[in-house]
Amino acid sequence: MSEEIVVSSTQAMQLGGVGMGSSIFRARPQMLELVHKTSHASDVKYGEFRVIGSNEHLGTSIRVVLLDSPQEQREWFIDPTKFSKDNKGCFSLDGIQPHTRAAAPPALYCKTCPKGDINWATWRKTKDPKDIPPCGAYWHLLLADRSTQTPYYLNVKGKSYMPFRQAMEQQMYGILSKVIANVKAENKKRGYTLVKLQQDGGPVHEDFRPTPGVTPTGDPLPMPNIFDVSFEIYSFTKDGGPFQMGFKDFRLMKPEDRADFGQLYLALRANRAEIDQSVNEETEAAAMVTEIAAAPEVQGEVLPPQPPITI
Question: Does some domain include residue 166?
Answer without folding.
Answer: no
